[in-house]
Amino acid sequence: MHLAPRPEPQLARALAADLDAADFRSDPLRRLWGEEADDALARGLREPILRALGDADSPLATLGRFFVLGMPQPAPALERALPRLGLSGLASLGLGVADGDDVRPEVLVRPQSFVDLDGVGEWWIASDLDEVALGAALPADHVLGVGGASRTLAELVIPAPVERALDLGTGCGIQALLVARHAGRVVATDISERALAFGELNALLNGVANIEFRLGSMFEPVAGEAFDLIVSNPPFVITPRAQGVPEYEYRDGGLIGDALVERFLRAAPAHLTPGGVAQLLGNWESRGRSGLERVESWIPEELDAWVIQRETLTPLGYAELWIRDGGTLPRDAGFTPLLSAWLDDFAERGVTAIGFGYVLLRRPAFPAPERPSEPERPSDPERPSDPERAERDEGRPRDEGRLRRFEHLAQPLANTGRALEAGLAAHDLLLDGLPDRLVVATDVTEARHLMPGDDDPTVIELRQGGGFGRVVSVDSGLAGFVGACDGELTVGQIVGALADLFDVPLTDLWADLEPRIRRLVRDGFLLPAE
To answer: Please, are residues 427 and 401 in contact by the beta-carbon 8 Å criterion?
Structure first.
């Protein structure tokens, strides 16, 4: 494929105008060939779309076959569908080549919908022809379109406005485009010149002008620079460095094991501004100790760190996943040699499992306080005794000032970027102690489980409807506290009333409840009333 290394802006604008005129967008295409056929394409089946289109020769049908399915089209039909760009412009951009009476596509261009704080939008995203269009395994320099990992990272990124952002390993540029909507300037880097060409083309197609594209590996193109936000879907796949094992630029970083993720985590802090955040996807190996423990050892103590492991695979499961991803199936002659190379590589390092998950780093804006303290609350009208309150607070577990969360969450997540942002805010809030008044988050429900004939529940659970979807088992004391958090009563008033109700010493009840209340605030079950 000979995509123009520096796409001509005028030609890109002409293509965008033609796509717009044909209404080349997700909804019109789905209406054209039907939802079932559209869903089948995601499973690698294009025959249902072809049957639905039949002999239709509208510009939308022609562009759908050409750019979505990656199929040659008659030159006259394509000329009618692209009146502004023309076939010469299509060839100049490197998007198609004459093949007898037809024009053969060299790339895919597909509509990609997104949702962010500004609402619903859609882009045209160009990428390399996929396996369905090629009819073969992917070439090593393949530039991937918007896949599952891209969508996952897009969900993770905290949507706060920033001045400068970095998309490291931009690929087709989808993360850079997303970040550009809430960043003043974005630098997008990649080791692949072809990936950068796709990124620039996609920025031009969608009228995004605040992205700068740079060639280079890891942080080399931004040496000495710092950013408010770094995002990366790096080539983290663990691939054996063995003869006969293909290396794909979009997924293989060329290092042994999980060294690429380690290198990123050790280097990223130097490129974060105070308060700056880095977010990435990654794999890590369990060798002797768990993968999460190894990741923790790579992150400097002075940084905030939040690592969520979503799943783990055995070496066999991992090898099969990525061999199939490259287009080689068990029925193919090359499958068993590849499987052996993967398993030998893992065995050589003593790898027992491979984790996949999300990493968030933050450079704190201020030094960590040595002994954060809870601000004095106004004395409760019904419990005015300051000595009693001092006794209650004595020995309260205190945050050490840095966020260090390394956890495994297998349940489906929703609005992850917002949940991460809220988690950071809750951590910062708790550095000054518990808020004086709390309310229950609107997505929290309570479930009580009783044995038949019993009046009292055997299990009480608080369930989170959004974010991380956590489920927390609580006892009657904590359930009573949460139930009373309406923003009117202070924390002290609620705990005092519960101590009277259960006829227990206030200090004992507070010692039991306080750390668990803090965890509920940290995890978003309870929010400050103000």
So the answer is: no
Q: What is the pTM of this model?
A: 0.88
Contacts of 413 (CB under 8 A, 6+ apart): 155, 419, 467, 468, 469
Pull the structure tokens for residue 53.
């289109």
CB contact at 8 A, 353 and 312 = yes
**DSSP letters for 448-470:** EE--TT-SS-SEEEEEESSTT--
What are the E-state strand segments in 237-384?
A: 272-286, 304-313, 353-362
Confidence of residue 3 (pLDDT cuts 50, 70, 90): confident
CA distance 149 to 390: 50
Helix (H, G, I), strand (E, B) or coil at 362: strand
Angle between the 9-21 and 193-205 helix axes, to the nearest 10 degrees?
50
The alpha carbon torsion through 249, 251, 252, 256 (nearest 10 deg) reads 170
Q: Position of tokens 């924390």?
A: 491
In tens, the pLDDT along 253-287 reads 888 889 999 999 999 999 999 999 999 999 999 99
Residues belonging to the chain: 530
CB proximity list for 174: less than 8 A, separation 6 or greater: 112, 123, 125, 146, 150, 154, 202
| Closest CA relative to residue 20, chosen from 79, 81, 69, 96 | 81
Burial readout 224-260 (b: 16 or more C-beta within 10 A, e: otherwise): eebbbbbbbbbbbbbbbeeeebbbbbbbbbebebbeb
Query: How remote is the C-alpha of 439 from its chain's centroid?
Result: 29
DSSP characters over 374-429:
PPPPPPBTTB--HHHHHHHHTT-----SS-EEEEE--S---SHHHHHHHHHHHHHH
Q: Which residue has the tokens 């042994």?
A: 256
Residue type, 86: G
**Which 8-state DSSP code applies to residue 351?**
-
Please state, in angstroms and as integers, the Cα–Cα distance from residue 147 to each residue in 30, 123, 125, 127, 362, following that order: 19, 14, 12, 11, 27
Contact 319, 339 (CB under 8 A): yes
C-alpha 188/C-alpha 166 separation (Å) is 6
Contact partners, residue 38, CB within 8 Å, separation at least 6: 29, 30, 49
The band of 458, judged by pLDDT with boundaries at 50, 70 and 90, is confident
Q: What does the angle CA 290 – CA 431 – CA 363 come to, to the nearest 5 degrees? A: 60
